[in-house]
Amino acid sequence: MLRELHISNLAVISDSRIELGAGLNCFTGATGAGKSLIIGAVELLLGLRSAAEMLRGRADEGRVSGIFEVSAGVRKRIEEAGDISMGEGGEVLLTRRLHASGRSSISLNGNPITLGMLKQIAEHLVDVHGQHDHQFLLKPSNQLEMLDHFGNLEALREEFRAAYRAHADAKRRVEELAASRTLRQQQLELYRFQADEIDKAEIVLGEFEELGARSSVLKNLEKLKKEAGAVHGALYEMDGSVLERLKMMAAVLSELAMLDQQVGPISQAMRDATIGLEEAAFDLSRYLDRLELDPGELAEVDERLNVLNRVLNKY
Question: Does the global pTM surpass 0.85?
């Protein structure tokens, strides 16, 4: 219920305070007495009318304030619409200020609110009936409000609202848990697939390096045989080979050592070098005997390397 209306610097009104009593209040008077202006001030306060044209001439600021008495249920809905907490009590102070710049500001119990919030709040405070004006009872939500009030069902409605919200929260939580369970199941299936793929590869420690080295040998077999064979030939098989000439020089130094003891160490070093080269030539010969091309082995090595590379790159 609107209990008090204060109008300042609005149209022709400089300052006016109107106190309203319980029950029916009537405004009477001749044409031009200001009845419509008071209704216009109420509409301005409720956000139902533009504020631009109503400021009193040469005034810097105008104001319309209303004190309303509301029930606890209405107070709660007003708090929800204005997104504020108004504390205890059954009074609501609504103020709208007009500025010469054309700007206006709105406050509810001292808290600033927007014009959109004001229009929602106004639906719970005043119902203006008239030609081309909205009517309170045409809205289904307001019809339910009236029926609940008539049947004294506000407490039961709040109980139902709390139960509904609890149910909605529980339902949302169940959906979140179900989604989380599905995600975990998908992850487990992925991990099982990955573990199975790794197990099937049967990777052995050091295998990748060994296969890489063997692949390099098989792919360069012709070059290895050609170059290693050339070295073996120059070292041992060819006429005038390195070993043949070393043996001849070692024999000469051996004879000289019999004539001069100082040549002895040199002769021994030459014999040792000859023996070392003979062993190297023998090892090289055995290496050449093992160099045989097996196309099947090369294909197997490459296939196995492809498997290992795929697993290593993936994991």
Answer: no
